[in-house]
Structures are given as C-alpha cells and as structure tokens.
Specification:
This protein is α+β, with helices and mostly antiparallel strands. The chain has twelve helices and 21 strands. It is globular, with a radius of gyration of 20 Å.
Length: 415
C-alpha cells in the first residue's frame, strides 16, 4: 500500500475499499463501527506470562505514543488457552495501517462481483472427533454435570481440508454474510515463513463481541443458546420462537451473562444488563444474545485488559471455568489453538474491539482447519449438539462454496 493511498484511506475509506486492497499476508478486522487494514509488522509483543499481557501491551503502546507518532495500534489474536500449552499470543504493531468506516451493504455488492474463492478438495476431510466420539463426549459431559462437577462445558470439533483457498475472495464472502458481526483475517506466519511465502491466516466471521471500549463506554455482547436455522420460513420462525422460550437455552444463556457481568463490574461506574436476551440471526444459526453496557471507571484501563478479564467466558469454555476447561482438555482430542480465543485491536488511548474467535478457520497454502463448538448443559441432547456444530461449520464451508456431509445419517445416530 503506497503512502498516498494510505492517507486517503485514513480520511474516507469504506470497508469495501479496504477489502479490495487486502492481500494474503495482511491483517484485516472489521465491525459495524470500524474497519482496519494493516500491512507489514513493525514489532511483535515479546512473550510474557498471561497475567502480564494487558500491562505489557499497554506499556508498549504508551511508549510508541510518547515517541511522537500518530496513535499507535496493536492488532492480533490470542488463543483459547493462555497457559502456554497451545498456540502463542500474537499481538503486533503494523508498519502501515489504514482505517475506514464499518461494514455496510457495499461489501455485499463487492462480494457478488467477486469470483469463487477457489476451494478444491484433494482428499477426504479429517473430522476430529468423529461424530460418534463427539456424541460420546457429550454423554460424558452430561454425566459430569449430573455429578455436579460443573454446570456447563463447551465441546467443539475441527475439520481439516486439503485444499487451495483464495483467502482474499473468502474474506470478501465472509464479510458480505456478516454485516452485523466481526470479520477478520490475521496473518500468523513468522518472519521466515512469510519470506518464503508460507502464510497461514486465521480468518473468520464472528457474531460475538467479547469486549469493546470507545472512550468511557464498555460493551460486551455474549451469545449462548443456539439453534440451526431452516430454509422454510415458517419452520425458521418456529425455531426462533422456541429458542426464546427454551428453559435449557435460557439457563445456559444466564450462566454466561452472569459471569460476563461479574467480570465487567469491577471496571465500571455503572453497568446495564438487560433482564432478558434477544434473538440474533446469522445465515446459519439463531442465537440468544444480551448486550451489556457499562461506563468505564478509569481511562487507564484498556480494552485488552477488560477483554482478558472476561476470557474465556462460559460461552466458549463453561461454568465454573476451571473444571469445564479441564474436561475440554481431557475429552476434546485436538488443540483449539486460536478458536474460541479473541481477535481484534487496541490503540494507545485504550480503545479497541475484541471479538470471540468463532466461525473461523486457519488457512494455509494447501490446507484449512475449521472449528465449531456447542454448549453442553443439563438437558442437552448429543445428536442435536452434533448437528449444531455442523450448522456452525457451514458458515465457513458456504463461503468456500463447499458442500460436505459432516455427520452420520441422523436416523442411525443414537442419543
């Protein structure tokens, strides 16, 4: 990106403008409020203990600000597990950064004019765990819930495809289907791999805001309680109405909202928590969502600090967090890496947006790994939870123009 284009973007760019200039190896993040496109890596936050991440990042940003540069911005992704047993936190300052308006309908028009993302399978996809093993994991989780080990856990699946995928086209398609959410592409390649052209991109279209800070305003919009959508309008409406009245799903949602509110309160002068959830629709799912809004007590508190205080919420881990996370580690059978972590940005004023890393994939030169999960509480049914993960995987598969059979025939499945 040349300097002239960079400065023009800073003044008047749209999300569609930035998407058109995205290339594999760059970083893109867009919300309904703002879009960012970054090229190059000026510096990467050095490794540190998870408990020091927010403070180290804040000091790093303030140091850059004191050097007289424009407001510095940190971007990147943090993994589900911050204990060093998984992928490493990746937060960096870009060499060039263009900022634009939030996602709007122009992105849809751009996507419609875009060619296919070019996904072509070269061998049978690998699912971890298998459908039967996943149903077994759900049954084990339900037994643990009956034994009062925890109230909720979240069990996920990964799907690995051997395929060549055009990341820029895929990103445009995801953004067009996610106008009210958070669309991202984070280049994960280290310097040596990038020089060799071996980029690996964390890409996705998350419906869930973990935490945003705009001045003194704090916002979180957790989702919990879901059901796949139907192509039949009457059935789709019935499912949405049923979700709003589901005792199981309302209980699952309340666990999440209560935990998020408890984590936000120490940072707020006041916090508004709606009494009941509302419906949020994506192309494949209905979700229960609650938007919490607070007034930040101390402007020295950054968006990343509050986001880390919330992570992981019961929406992606469970409740209580420690036994739920241990069950996930013991039962799931694969490394989530950045899935169910957080992705976004924070500037030197402390403002920023951090989405939960959902409806996502890690895409390399010849392969991609997709992820999806479902919350397990008392009353969950193994086959329905399996089908929920399949519906969530279809967000990415549809954007890749891939149709796959993801599970055994439902009629043959046992509960």
């Amino acid at each position: 990106m040349n300097d002239r284009l960079h400065h023009a973007f800073l003044k008047q760019a749209s999300a569609a403008d930035l998407l058109q200039h995205y290339q594999t190896g760059a970083t893109f993040f867009a919300s309904p409020r703002r879009s960012l496109l970054a090229h190059g890596v000026k510096a990467v936050l050095p490794p540190c203990e998870a408990s020091q991440l927010a403070a180290k990042a804040a000091a790093w940003l303030q140091e850059a600000r004191q050097e007289g540069r424009p407001p510095a911005v940190l971007m990147g992704a943090l993994p589900f597990r911050l204990d060093g047993s998984s992928a490493s936190p990746y937060l960096y300052m870009p060499q060039q950064l263009a900022s634009g308006a939030g996602v709007d309908n122009a992105v849809t028009a751009l996507s419609q004019a875009e060619k296919s993302c070019g996904a072509q399978l070269s061998m049978t996809p690998l699912m971890q765990p298998t459908p039967e093993a996943y149903r077994g994991n759900v049954r084990s989780a339900l037994a643990a819930i009956r034994d009062s080990r925890f109230e909720k856990t979240v069990l996920s699946r990964s799907l690995t495809l051997d395929a060549k995928i055009a990341v820029p086209a895929l990103l445009q398609r995801l953004a067009a289907r996610n106008l009210r959410g958070y669309t991202f592409a984070i280049d994960l390649a280290d310097a040596a791999a990038a020089r060799a052209g071996a980029h690996r991109t964390l890409i996705g279209a998350s419906p869930e805001l973990l935490l945003a800070r705009y001045g003194r305003e704090l916002v979180s919009h957790p989702l919990a309680g879901s059901i796949p959508r139907s192509a039949d309008a009457a059935e789709d409406r019935r499912r949405a109405d049923g979700l709003l009245q589901s005792v199981k799903d309302l209980h699952e949602h309340a666990l999440v909202v209560d935990a998020v509110a408890a984590a936000m309160r120490p940072y707020c002068k006041n916090l508004k928590v709606p009494a009941a959830p509302s419906l949020l629709a994506t192309p494949t799912m209905w979700h229960l969502g609650t938007e919490l809004r607070g007034e930040l007590a101390d402007l020295a508190t950054t968006s990343l600090e509050v986001a880390l205080a919330l992570h992981p919420t019961p929406a992606v881990c469970g409740h209580p967090a420690a036994p739920a996370a241990k069950f996930i580690a013991d039962a799931e059978g694969f490394d989530r890496r950045y899935f169910a972590g957080l992705v976004g940005w924070c500037d030197s004023r402390g403002d920023g947006e951090w989405a939960v890393t959902l409806r996502c994939a890690e895409v390399g030169a010849d392969s991609a790994t997709l992820y999806a999960g479902a919350g397990i509480v008392a009353g969950s049914e193994p086959q329905l939870e399996l089908l929920e993960t399949s519906a969530k995987l279809r967000t990415m598969l549809a954007a890749m123009n891939l149709e796959l059979m993801l599970e055994d025939e439902p009629a043959k499945a046992t509960s």
